[in-house]
């Protein structure tokens, strides 16, 4: 049985929010999320040509985007979304929660 909630050191209940998707239209491939992820959940990949970009996307940005390559290792810490400058992340509680 997986743990779907945890406790803070003070004993408060804390519900992890797991990374479920990264918006490929917004991601600029900056790598900030990759650097802070403690679980090797993320990987930089080449952007597919079929991805339609957002209007404010700078064409000088890299041709790479981040992807969730190993979702099963996510601990739901939320660090990736806090450092993302483009608001790419979507989260959800554990499916059993
Ligand atoms: S929520 Fe935490 S463990 Fe999951 S992908 Fe983001 S930084 Fe990594
Ligand atoms: S921090 Fe955001 S914009 Fe930067 S690589 Fe990660 S998902 Fe993409």
UniProtKB/TrEMBL annotation:
Keyword Repeat among UniProt keywords: yes
Molecular-function annotations in GO: 4 iron, 4 sulfur cluster binding; metal ion binding
Ranges of residues in domain 4Fe-4S ferredoxin-type: 18-47, 64-94
Keywords: 4Fe-4S, Electron transport, Iron, Iron-sulfur, Metal-binding, Nitrogen fixation, Repeat, Transport
Cofactor: [4Fe-4S] cluster
UniProt keyword Iron-sulfur, yes or no: yes
Pfam families registered for this protein in UniProt: Fer4_7
Physiological role: Ferredoxins are iron-sulfur proteins that transfer electrons in a wide variety of metabolic reactions.
The name this protein goes by in its record: Ferredoxin III
């Amino acid at each position: 049985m997986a743990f779907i909630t945890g406790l803070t050191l003070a004993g408060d209940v804390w519900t992890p929010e797991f990374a479920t998707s990264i918006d490929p239209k917004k991601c600029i491939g900056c790598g900030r999320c990759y650097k802070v992820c403690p679980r090797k959940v993320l990987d930089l990949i080449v952007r597919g040509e079929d991805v339609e970009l957002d209007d404010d996307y700078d064409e000088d940005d890299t041709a790479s985007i981040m992807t969730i390559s190993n979702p099963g290792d996510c601990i739901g810490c939320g660090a990736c979304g806090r450092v993302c400058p483009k608001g790419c992340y979507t989260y959800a509680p554990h499916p059993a929660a």
